[in-house]
Prior knowledge:
Two copies of one chain form a homodimer.
Chain A: H1 30-42, H2 46-57, E1 62-63, H3 64-67, H4 75-87, E2 91-96, E3 99-104, H5 110-116
Antiparallel strand pairs in A: 1-3, 2-3
Helix pairs in contact in A: 2-4
Chain B binds a DNA duplex (30 and 30 nucleotides) through residues 10-12, 14-15, 17, 45, 47, 63-65, 68, 73-77, 79-84, 95, 97-100.
Amino acid sequence: MSIDMELAPKTKRAAGEPCCVPVVYPEVDRDRALRLATVAKALGDPIRLQLVDVLRKHAGKVCVCELVPLFDVSQPTLSHHLKKLRDAGIVDSERQGLWAYYYVVPGSLDDFGGWLR
Amino acid sequence: MSIDMELAPKTKRAAGEPCCVPVVYPEVDRDRALRLATVAKALGDPIRLQLVDVLRKHAGKVCVCELVPLFDVSQPTLSHHLKKLRDAGIVDSERQGLWAYYYVVPGSLDDFGGWLR
DNA sequence: GTTACCCATCGTCGATCGTCGATTCAATCG
DNA sequence: CGATTGAATCGACGATCGACGATGGGTAAC
Lengths: 117, 117
């Protein structure tokens, strides 16, 4: 979408006339903006961002029992954050007996990273 | 949100189920996580994300009066969103007479983009 | 069976969010 | 001057968030 970026010197408009005609438009439609914002919102908490950082840098699946002592919050609170990340599609989990292993869903951050670039 | 690496040794462990063997820890310290999460949080709203999208793709400064009609919210609400983006350091504004022109602060998304990579 | 353990969910609380209409502020025009 | 205009701020509202403790659900060991 090519955009005319002429910034014409504005003068106070006459009564009843529109302020200015918009010459800029979003290239991201509403649905994609919603998806991207969902990912961003999930990353908008320091604990969740560090959780994703741990899971990304660690190539594999990490047990919750390892994640809990890393943060100064209770176990239910951490579980809540992990659920947020799951709902956003960023991570997923896998039960193995008593334990739950979390991992970053491959490619789940690609769209957001692509937009950011 | 501490990152202390005191992995309490598990007292009980199911036979043959390895847990807590790998040492995992965030590579992002607390301060950086806070800064990154602040940016992510600011982008965690569809309207704000589209605002940044408009301002980024339009390599110049855009008048608020052009932004308002793009979204189905009131002018005060849009001003509120722009303030959020300003507080996060993503955009800045410049007054010219009656009008205010917004633009993306160069490099303000680089750190976040770098982490996401 | 019983007990111990890990993780998820529930209920609750205060704080923050997104939105609006009304108002205020600042700059310009007549 | 007073009137008008664009943008920011204010005050209020319901909704959502992040945190906790308590509880529930399953699995493994005794």
